[in-house]
Amino acid sequence: MADRYLHLTRTAPGRFLTRRLGLPQPHPLRRWSADAPALDGPLLRLTAGNSALREPLSDAGLPLTAPDEGPAGRQSPAALVLDATGVTSAAGLAEVHSALHPAVRSLGAGGRVVVLGSPLSADDHHQAAAQQALEGFTRSLGKELGRGRTANLVRLTAPAAAASTLRFLLSPKSAYISGQVIEIAGRAVDEEHVADGERAAGDDPARPLAGRTALVTGAARGIGAAVAETLARDGADVLCLDVPEAEADLRATADHIGGTALALDITAADAAERITAALPGGLGILVHNAGITRDRRLVNMPADRWSSVLDVNLTAVLDITDALLKAGVVGDGGRIVATSSIAGIAGNTGQTNYAASKAGIIGLVRSLAPRVADRGITVNAVAPGFIETRMTAAVPLLVREAGRRMNSLAQGGLPVDVAEATAWFAHPGSGAVSGQVLRVCGQSLLGA
Predict the structure, then answer these.
(1) Per-residue b/e over 236-251, b at no fewer than 16 CB within 10 Å?
(2) What pTM did the predictor assign?
């Protein structure tokens, strides 16, 4: 659904009116396209503290400059990357200020700020305090930047494994992600468990998922269809799954991307068995996207509205994941990505059932990730905020407008924003990213 307010603010009368009234002024976001796959402008490297980090940015896809070199051709930097891994004291935080204070003003519209930090030390509370301070700093900066610019923090346990994450954050693919903290804690690829298709993926950076099979549930429309299309764009063979009632849309999605359709209710007793039968060659990427809402305040919510949401959004996810792992359908080096929600983090009136199911997904991710790490399997979740779909289009106007504006980017996201985050989790080089929940919400003002 078109965001008429955003278009209004791009006109001269709209800019004048919204400025006079102190209203949000969203900036159109630059998203990935085949014609414009990278940000426009150089990447400016900055340092705070005595960093031992060598060069984590060589594969990020932007021309590199240093502060004393000046932006190439006087072009505004498209991204600022601050290496703050060496900040170990409260006094050292002054260098964070001195590095970014003069540089932020020059950052181009739609630009990126990425702060690189270190894990919090259990033995040095001064270092832990300084590194935790970077989180508050980055989240606050994300709320200040405006003009479609974002800020995120990456904590590096394994700097050599950060390439796929930096490429994602320093690209148009991360347009609706801001104020997030991402942990890089392992090897980029586990050679002992890597699949043949994963090794081959490195030969074609434009199709990193070539040779891998992906299953996307809830793929008939909306976010699920966007995920299926994005994974197919990146080279995956996609099995699109949705309920029989949505079979026409499901087949249209599958035909559009050259995938396969499977009409199936994931709550059926034989769901895992039928999925297994449809995947004789196994599965490299499992995306749990299917979900429903049955909103009502708890005092007015009958048991069937509670159980139907929990059955689809959580129980089926748990049961199918367990069955596919036990049967070896999800192979070594596989990727599991589930869909949570900011409702599962912050709660939402009238959604005790939905919020419980989406918070349950977070528990699943955090518990399962370390238990399958020895097989090179990663488990992560995306947590969308206000995303422009048929569902949100049906929300009353005032509620819809509030949902759109209550984030640092002052606009709703698109299904492709969630899809790009899912594709990053699914990337062969993202093996060091697991057990994490990434909010795709434009840095919503709700929740942490």
Answers:
(1) bbbbbbbbeebeebbb
(2) 0.93
SS3 category, 213: strand
* 117-121, 124-128, 155-159: range with lowest mean pLDDT: 155-159
5 is catalytic: no
- Measure the CA–CA gap between 404 and 442, rounded to whole angstroms: 9
The secondary element (H helix, E strand) that includes residue 178 is: none
What is the per-residue pLDDT across 64-81, written as a single tens digit (0 to 9) for each?
676 655 544 567 999 999
Neighbour count for residue 199 (Cβ, 10 Å): 14
- What is the rounded distance in angstroms from the CA atom of residue 379 to the CA atom of residue 181? 16
Q: Write out the H or E segment, with its range, that includes residue 23.
A: none
Are 339 and 401 in the same domain?
yes
Q: Which residue among 5, 32, 354, 425 is the active-site one?
A: 354
The span from the CA of 5 to the CA of 428, in Å, is: 39
Helices assigned H by DSSP within 4-92: 4-8, 12-21
Place of tokens 């929740």: 447
Pairing of strands 378-384, 260-263: unpaired
Check which CATH number belongs to the domain holding 247 and give it.
3.40.50.720
Provide the domain count of the chain. 2
